[in-house]
Specification:
heterodimer; A: mainly alpha; MetI-like fold; B: MetI-like fold; 72% helix
Chain lengths: 315, 300
C-alpha cells in the first residue's frame, strides 16, 4: 500500500472507510451517552426549571455553588465531603495493604489444590452485587441478627451481660462497617494484579537470595516487595485519584437518615438533592460537578507526582 | 537426568524456620478463606433452616430444622419470576450488544492506519475519569426515551471503556503478519476483522463478555432510577424493594408465625436465589476474569 505523506480527509475516508464504519457505533454511543450529557453541566449555573429546560432557564452565575458551600444547608455538603474523604482514607489505610499481603501469602504457598481453593473462594465476593451484599449485611446486623447473637453468646461464656446493639442506627459504626464490607468484597480480587506481578519476578533472584542465606521473610522484604513496587505505585495512584469516588451505591443501600452524620457521601447527597423531597436541580448538579472536577484534578495531579517520583505512571 | 545438588540442603535452624513459615502461611490463608466464605455459607444454611432456629441464633454451621418452606414462599411470588426473567433479558441482550459495539470499535482502534484513532482513544479514556453527574445524565436518559424502556436500558449501558481498551490491547498484541497476508490475498478490513481477528480472539472476547454480563446481572442504580414499572424491573431492584425496604415483611406478615420460616429465612432464601447463577457459573468463568486483570491490566 503506497502511503502518501499528505492526504486529505476525503482521501483518508476513501482509504479507511471500513474502519470508520466499524468505529461508528462506538462514536455515536459516546456522543449520545457520554458527551451530550456534559451540556447538562450548565444547569450548575442556572436556576433550572424542568419545564423551561436548559435553553429557557435563567443563568444565575455561581449562585448554586455559593448556596452549596455557604448557604443555610451548606453543612450537609461539607459533611458529605468529609465523610467521602474519611471513608476513602480508611479504605486506603486498611483496604490497600491487605490485597498485597494476600498476594504475598499466595506466592509463598506452594502451588496446589489448597492455594487454588483459597484463591477461588477469595475472588468470589467480587462478583456478588452491591444489593446482595447490603442485604446480607443488614440482615446480619439486625437486633436478632448474627452479629448480636454471636457477641451475646461469646460474652455469655464469660458471664458478661450484653445489650444488643442496633448497628445501623449508630453513627459511630457505619464507616467501619462500610470499609470492612468493601475489604470482604474486593481484597481477594484486588490481590490478582499483585499476584500476577509476583509470579513475574525471576526465580533466579529468589535463588540468589537463598544462597546468600536470606530467610523467607528477608526474601519477601528484599525480593518480592521491590519486585512489585511499580504495581503497588500504580494501584496507589488509582486509589488516591479516586478518593472522591466512594462506591455510593452500597452507601445508598445501607444507610438511613439516623446515620447521615457519618454515612452521607457526595454521591448520595447529590442523588437526594436531585431525586427526593425538595428537588433542587441546580444544587445537585453543582455538587456532582464539584465531585467530578476535583476528582479529575486529583487523578491528573497524582499521576504527575508518580511520574516525577518514579518511572511509573498511568499514561 | 538428575542434577547433583551444588548446595547441600541446610540443616537446622533455617529448615525449621522454613517449616514454621509454611505453617504460618497456610494458617493465614485458611483463616482468610474461612472469613470470606462464612457469610455466604451462613446465608445458605439459614435459608434452609427453620425460622425459629435462625431467630434465636441457633444456626451456625449447618441447617437446623431443615426445610424448604422459605424457598416455597419466595418462589411463589410472580414478581420474583418477572424480575428474574427481566434480568436474563438485560444480561443476554446487553452482553451481545456490548460485544458487537466493543469488538468492532476495538478493531478500528487497533489499526495504525486509522487516523481518527487518537481522538477516539482519548474520547473513550476520558469517560473513565470524568462523568457528567446524576442530573445531567438523568435528563439525558429522559430525553432519549430510556425511562421505562427495555431496549433503552440495553443500549444505554452497553459501553465500558475499560473493556474496549482491553480488547484493543489484545488485538494490538496479535502479529501483524497475519493481516498483511490476508490483505495480499485481497481481503478488506471487514474480512480481516471477521475472518482473521475474531476467530483468534475467543479468549479475550470471553473475558470481556463475562465482565459485561456480570455488570448487567448486578446492575442496580440506574435500573432503580429509570424503570418505574414492576413488569420491567430486574432482580436487583426487586431484591432491594423486598429486603432493604422490608417489603418482604409486609407481604408475609400474616404468614410468618409458624415454625418453619421467618422474615430472616425468607430474606436469606431470596438472596440465595439471586446469586445461584453467579455461584454456579463462577468456576467456569474464573480463569477468564483473572486473565482480564492481568492482560488488560492498568495500562492505557
Amino acid at each position: 500500500m503506497g502511503m502518501t505523506a499528505k492526504k486529505g480527509i476525503a482521501g483518508e475516508l476513501r482509504e479507511n472507510w471500513q474502519l470508520y464504519v466499524l468505529a461508528l457505533p462506538l462514536a455515536v454511543w459516546l456522543i449520545l451517552y457520554a458527551y451530550k450529557p456534559l451540556i447538562g453541566l450548565v444547569i450548575a449555573f442556572q436556576k433550572f426549571s424542568p419545564f423551561k429546560g436548559i435553553a429557557g432557564s435563567p443563568f444565575v452565575g455561581l449562585d448554586n455553588f455559593q448556596r452549596l458551600m455557604a448557604g443555610p444547608s451548606a453543612y450537609m455538603f461539607w459533611r458529605a465531603l468529609k465523610n467521602t474523604v474519611q471513608i476513602s482514607l480508611y479504605g486506603l489505610a486498611f483496604g490497600f495493604p491487605i490485597p498485597i499481603i494476600l498476594a504475598i501469602l499466595f506466592n509463598e504457598a506452594r502451588e496446589g489444590v489448597f492455594r487454588k481453593g483459597v484463591q477461588t473462594v477469595s475472588y468470589l465476593p467480587n462478583l456478588i452485587s452491591e444489593v446482595t451484599i447490603a442485604s446480607i449485611v443488614l440482615a446480619m446486623l439486625q437486633l436478632n441478627g448474627l452479629a448480636n447473637v454471636a457477641i451475646e453468646g461469646l460474652l455469655g461464656v464469660f458471664g458478661v451481660d450484653y445489650k444488643r446493639i442496633s448497628w445501623m442506627s449508630e453513627p459511630a459504626f457505619f464507616q467501619g462497617i462500610y470499609v470492612l464490607t468493601g475489604i470482604w468484597k474486593n481484597a481477594g480480587f484486588d490481590s490478582i494484579v499483585f499476584f500476577a506481578a509476583l509470579v513475574g519476578i525471576s526465580p533466579t533472584l529468589y535463588e540468589a537470595a537463598r544462597i546468600d542465606g536470606a530467610s523467607r521473610i528477608q526474601r519477601i522484604r528484599y525480593v518480592s516487595i521491590p519486585g512489585i513496587m511499580p504495581t503497588i505505585i500504580i494501584m496507589l495512584i488509582i486509589r488516591v485519584g479516586n478518593v472522591l469516588n466512594v462506591g455510593f451505591e452500597r452507601v445508598l443501600l445501607m444507610y438511613n437518615p439516623t446515620i447521615y452524620s457519618t454515612a452521607d457521601v457526595l454521591g448520595t447527597f447529590t442523588f437526594r438533592l436531585g431525586s427526593s423531597g425538595f428537588i433542587d436541580y441546580g444544587l445537585s448538579t453543582a455538587s456532582s460537578m464539584f465531585n467530578s472536577l476535583v476528582g479529575f484534578a486529583l487523578v491528573i495531579v497524582t499521576n504527575r507526582i508518580a511520574r516525577k517520583a518514579s518511572e511509573t505512571s498511568l499514561w | 537426568m538428575v542434577m547433583p545438588r551444588i548446595f547441600p540442603a541446610r540443616k537446622g535452624s533455617l529448615d525449621r524456620e522454613g517449616a514454621l513459615f509454611d505453617i504460618g502461611v497456610k494458617a493465614a490463608l485458611l483463616a482468610w478463606g474461612l472469613v470470606t466464605a462464612y457469610p455466604i455459607w451462613y446465608v445458605i444454611v439459614s435459608s434452609l433452616s427453620s425460622g425459629s432456629a435462625v431467630d434465636i441464633g441457633a444456626v451456625w454451621w449447618k441447617p437446623i430444622g431443615l426445610n424448604l418452606d422459605s424457598y416455597r414462599h419466595v418462589l411463589a411470588k410472580s414478581q420474583f419470576w418477572v424480575s428474574y426473567g427481566n434480568t436474563f433479558f438485560y444480561t443476554i441482550a446487553g452482553t451481545a450488544y456490548s460485544l458487537m459495539i466493543s469488538t468492532t470499535a476495538a478493531y478500528a482502534l487497533s489499526r495504525r492506519a486509522f487516523r481518527a484513532r487518537k481522538v477516539l482513544n482519548l474520547a473513550l479514556s476520558f469517560t473513565l475519569w470524568f462523568q457528567a453527574g446524576f442530573i445531567p445524565l438523568y435528563l439525558n436518559f429522559r430525553s432519549l426515551g430510556v425511562i421505562n424502556s427495555r431496549w433503552g436500558i440495553v443500549v444505554s449501558f452497553g459501553v465500558q471503556a475499560f473493556n474496549i481498551i482491553l480488547m484493543r490491547n489484545y488485538f494490538e498484541s496479535l502479529p501483524k503478519e497475519l493481516d498483511e497476508a490476508a490483505k495480499i490475498d485481497g481481503a478488506n478490513e471487514f474480512r480481516v476483522f471477521t475472518d482473521v481477528y475474531l476467530p483468534l480472539s475467543k479468549p479475550a472476547m470471553t473475558t470481556i463478555a463475562i465482565y459485561y454480563a456480570i455488570s448487567r446481572w448486578n446492575g442496580f442504580f440506574w435500573s432503580m432510577v429509570l424503570l418505574k414499572r414492576a413488569d420491567l424491573i430486574p432482580i436487583q431492584v426487586y431484591l432491594q424493594q423486598m429486603i432493604i425496604q422490608e417489603q418482604i415483611s409486609l407481604e408475609n406478615a400474616s404468614l410468618v408465625g409458624g415454625e418453619t420460616f421467618s422474615f430472616a429465612t425468607l430474606k436469606y432464601a431470596l438472596i440465595v436465589c439471586s446469586i445461584i447463577p453467579v455461584i454456579v457459573g463462577y468456576p467456569f468463568v474464573q480463569r477468564y476474569f483473572q486473565r482480564g486483570i492481568t492482560v488488560g491490566g492498568v495500562k492505557e
